Amino acid sequence: MLGGFGLLAGAVLPVAAQTPTNTLRSQQLPAVRVAGLRPTRFAVGSRQLVLDSVALNNYRSGTVADALGARTAIYLKNYGPGQLSSIALRGTSARHTAVLWNGFNINLPSLGEADFALLPVNGTTQVEVQPGPAGATYGNGAVGGTLRLSAAANSPADWGRGWHGTAQGDYGSFGLGAGLAKAGFSNEKVALRTSFNYRRADNDFPFYIGEGRSRVQQRQKNAAFRQASFTQDATLRLGQRGELSAAVWLTDAGRQIQPGIGTNNTNAQERDQSRRLMASYRRVSTRREWTVRTAWFEDVINYRDDLSGLSESTVRTSQAQAEHTWRLAPNASVRLGGEAQHFAAQVDGYGAAPRTENRYSGFLLLRYDPRPRLQLSLNLRQAVLPGQPPPLTPTAGAEWLALAAGRHALSLKGNASRSYRAPTLNERYWRPGGNPNLLPEESFGYEAGLAYTYKTTVLTLQNELTAYRQLVDNWVQWTPGDSYWSPRNLRQVRAQGLEASSTLGWQPGAYRLTARGSYAFTSTEKTQGAAADADPVGRQLPFVPRHTVALSTDHGWRGWQLGTTLTYTGYRYTDASATDFLPGYLLLNASVGRTLAVAPAWQLLVLAQGFNLTNNTYQNYQNRALPGRNASLSLRLLWR
């Protein structure tokens, strides 16, 4: 269930003191920090997956791909360690997931997706996933779902904390080395947070080709990588009603592109750089809040190999957002806003001239609770894109607390949503083959579910079951022509399935246990196509597993910690006719650590982790080798 209303957002509101009539002095009560209305407040009826600081703790020097792959039943298509990792929420493609940082979509405008292997966990306090279409709430690309990266340097718990910091070093198999540093400071006026991380690996792991006794061991070549990331966040309180925030996020990654098994090594390599800057101002009162945000991104991809030489791509994105929220009543709130984006792309594949494009959208979000146990939301968004604009995209959701008796609570929820995806710059402008006349993809979906909670003083059990179904029209597909490939609106795709999850928390004393389990059944098939589309209908789409499972446990006792994760990924077809496939596989990982107090304000965590402990030979993506059993050792120093 979503939380209660609270007061509107984000600054310090004074609590006026009463002045007795028989004295000349007055007493000022301490200022208080109140929470704002998060976007999820208007996402009634939608499923929410959250990886909090406990779930992310063992992945601080890793990536969002590592954490999601181990802790959820979400499928990520991985081309190798440190290589491209793309998400597939509810059977859709990576271009159908919106990835948000501080409210801004960070998907590459040229590709329409984000590489999850380039999103570090360090500097992120929480990873939130909302599966399902939600274009009205989050905008372009929120067809299969939305991922939100939170770095709450200005959360209520951080105000007045003073100085604090963390440093960590890692050493592991196949030349793995990593390090991170994070420091923060806050008083009642200013909150600052700085983080840096670095990660590298040779990835010269052995793998086998062939079958049975004829298997031959080889050592992986041309798969090394190095990644660095820097973030800086600052929040300044302006009086009692205003708040100014700014953030910088810089990433730089150089990696060799791992060749496929049995293919020639062309010494391919890629340099990925991102520079993200944003600033926002928020002003609040007891009934209103207004926010303006602006951002500038620069994404650089330079690719080189022995056959095609150098290909360079630079895309700059300027964005602005404004929104106003009214608290109409204790049980009703409305948010009205708009955003504008400007893209400027200098890409070798587009020709010599730079390409520019503007996109706009306006939205209205409404939350109303007619009864204490009933919550409703209705959201609308209209986008303006080059060419034919998408239709109005509404979202309606409801949640009902059907049972609240003692330790038991049962909620029923559901939503229906229309969403859209604008064609990427590559799909519109690539030469030869780009198609500027492409239509936006449109999606309509609905889901229904129930959530059950059982809670005592030492135990909490949360279970959730969700069923969903959606259709995506005008699905863009690249098809071969006489001399080159070109994208066309050829497909209608139906995605449907079931998602189940359970979380158990138990703390009878010094011992603490958190156990999580999740399962996803995903059926994604093409239901209609054009004459030019040779792919058959009624077949599971390639690289979409029908079954995925994730199980994990976290144990803590007197400074000791033990963690386990077990994931299963079912078979995946590798062609559109659903004849060839990769077999399913199990992965077992474990970690053990001890936190030691080395001084009154200092702690040291020693953490050992093992991956693929059963030494399975498997492939996540066709003909891309992955390492067998491997391990790492981390030393983490925490101050205050």
Automatic annotation (TrEMBL):
Keyword list, A-Z: Cell outer membrane, Membrane, Receptor, Signal, TonB box, Transmembrane, Transmembrane beta strand, Transport
Gene3D superfamilies to which the protein is assigned, alphabetical: TonB-dependent receptor, beta-barrel domain, TonB-dependent receptor, plug domain
Domain TonB-dependent receptor plug positions: 51-146
Main location: membrane
Membrane topology: Multi-pass membrane protein
Pfam family, one: Plug
Domain TonB-dependent receptor-like beta-barrel: 165-604
Keyword Transmembrane helix among UniProt keywords: no
Family recorded in the similarity comment: Belongs to the TonB-dependent receptor family.
Name of the protein this chain belongs to: TonB-dependent receptor
Taxonomic lineage from the root: Bacteria, Pseudomonadati, Bacteroidota, Cytophagia, Cytophagales
